[in-house]
Amino acid sequence: MSEMQPLVRSGVAGQPGTPAEATGPVAGRPRHRDAGGKPRSLAGDAWLDLRRSKVFWTAAGLVAVILLMAAWPALFTSADPRECLLARKHAGPSGGAFFGYDFQGCDVFAKTVYGARASIVVGVCGTLIAGGIGLVIGLAAGFHGGWLDAVLSRFIDIVLGIPFLLAAIVLAKRLTADPASDGVLAVTCTLGLLGWTTAARVMRSAVISAKNQDYVAAARMLGAGPMRLMTRHVLPNSIGPFVVVLTLLLGVNIAGEATLSYLGIGLKNDAISWGIAIAEAGPYARAAAAPLVWPSVFLAATVLAFIMLGDAIRDAFDPKLR
Amino acid sequence: MFRYVVRRLLQMVLTFFGATFVVYALMFANQDDPLQALAGERPLTDSQRTALTERYHLDDSFLQQYWYYVKGLLTGDFGTSLTGRPIGSMLADAWPVTIRLTLLAIVIAAAVAISAGVLSAIRRGGVFDNATTLLTLIVLALPIVVLAPLAQLIFGIQLGWFPATATKDATLWQLLLPALVLGTLVVATELRVTRSSVADNLRADYVRTARAKGLSAKRVIGVHVLRNSLIPVITLIGVDIGVLMSGAIVTEGVFNIPGVGFNLFRGIRTEDGPLVVGFVSILVIVFLVVNLIVDLLYAVLDPRIRYE
Questions:
Q1: Which residue among A157, A263, A278 sits closest to B265, beta carbon to beta carbon?
Q2: Does the first or last residue of chain A, that is N or C, have fewer Cβ atoms within 10 Å of its Cβ?
Q3: Boundaries of every domain in chain A
Q4: What integer is the mean pLDDT of B153-160?
Q5: What ipTM does the predicted assembly reach?
């Protein structure tokens, strides 16, 4: 792939040193140039691939609906999810309550719609925390190398050595000890503090391979300091795989929130969450299936949407697959 | 090989202390008043306080307390649950069921993953391959909290094909549906790894040689390719054990299987701190040991790994 060949010139001319900006064959209109003849970046190239992908559009559409649901649940239902009448226990669908009522007589559709917010907020914030930790540790280990790399890599090994849910149980139990809290902060921190390992590993190896490229050596010879090398040359060229891992992690974290809430160490105290809804409906599954089925379907669709999105983006960013 | 074993053992010791330290620090560091928590609502006299402080080494430094905990773990003293039962005997009761469930899940997952993986690698880009790629994506996205209750609802309650819950000494028939649920957690990754490694090996020189010698396709794939392709799949088992353990907590809770996961599930629900810490510590140790064994096995099967 010609656009992957790094040129020293673009690295030191003061522009971001993405190798994708290197000039390619002149004949015709090369793939990496748009109509105006401007060089297209790797991201631009990936976007062109993504635009043609059905999987990407399906996933993006689903994600858009879910985000809308999380931001303005009132757009989807006019019912109040906390207005429960025991008289309606396990009643069938009626009016706006498309999915009927649960064992406490709450509107299942309204509860499911309002449950999106907890999943998205916890998932996104947890992923951002994990991303921050992973970025710093991966960049430090990969860029500095030597003893720092050895220490940080062992640290990553230790955290990876504990299965996620086991560590999450201990951590979430510790953080949700305060009976007054609704657990949002605790679950977010749990997911953030435990989820960064893969991101850090990916970042570390991407940084190491970017660091050893010729254009970095050239920039260093031209007198660029370590800070400039890191921010202008190494980081832009190694961030791609990291971002993809974070997209996938978003799906994993949403599932993690539901699992912790299901186990009773996640969201609590009147919080509306798909995990809690599934746990509550389980024992009544024989009497009424809808309160169990719909939160499960919404949860699975959300996780699937984010994983599909991450998959599509990875395929677009991975030039080897083209 | 010797150097590899030593290095791997040292790594495991480091991880053991790191992991147990994290678990211990999280659980017991800066608790408000553990003695009052132990006594509940009842008031504690000063002499009781002194006796309990002495008994639980509460006056010692944090590191010393951590040392007592590790010593307990290594000598088989895992503490007592809040219900008064020693955690060691609870574990002894619970292990057999969990091991049966996990083994069943591993066997089912491996059988499906290897056969489907080989088939889709042979016909890459075909209908079967595309269907399995899509299916693995969907299976990967299904969280266990969705899978287990829904499988119980559909196949256990509504269709009635399988028993919906297990009894005290769970039979293999009762464990089949939970094992299928647990197996789906790992089948997707195993299938993808089998597929890509078979596809890689199909292009290798030794396969061309075998074909050129006139061996049948069955023998080339069944003996030559499969033997080399299964090596990466074996390393997955180590990772899978961790996934299965996590999955077993929810699955055993849903299907009422009296195994390790069920005890942990109940411990979390009833806020039984010592039980949770005891079980989690032991599961972490089991995970570390299994991973060590798998890594050593991997080094035996694939000599290249020793010279890394």
A1: A263
A2: C
A3: 45-321
A4: 80
A5: 0.80
Single-letter amino acid, residue A214: D
Query: Following CA atoms B106, B109, B113, B114 in sequence, which dihedral angle do they give, to the nearest 10 degrees?
Result: 40
- Binary contact (B137, A174; C-beta < 8 A): no
Question: How far apart are alpha carbons A270 and A276 in whole angstroms?
Answer: 10
Residue A127 has which token pair?
């992923």
Residue B30 belongs to what H/E stretch? none
Asked: is A45-321 a CATH 1.10.3720.10 domain? The reply is yes
Whether A291 and chain B come into contact, CB under 8 Å, resolves to no
The pTM of the whole model exceeds 0.95: no
- Whose tokens are 């396709």? That residue is B217
Residue type, B289: V
- Residues B81-97: pLDDT tens digits? 777 788 888 888 888 88
Q: For chain B, what is the mean pLDDT?
A: 82
Collapsed DSSP state (helix, strand, coil) of residue B162? coil
Are A245 and A198 contacting, i.e. CB atoms less than 8 angstroms apart?
yes
Burial group, residue A193, by CB count within 10 angstroms (0-12, 13-18, 19+) = middle
Cβ pair A306, A253 in contact under 8 A? no
A126 to each of A38, A119, A177, A193, B104, how far by Cα in Å? 38, 10, 19, 8, 34
**Through-space distance between the first and last CA atoms of chain B, rounded to whole angstroms:** 11
Q: Tabulate helix, strand, coil % of chain A (nearest 5).
A: 70, 0, 30
Min Cα separation B187/chain A (Å): 17
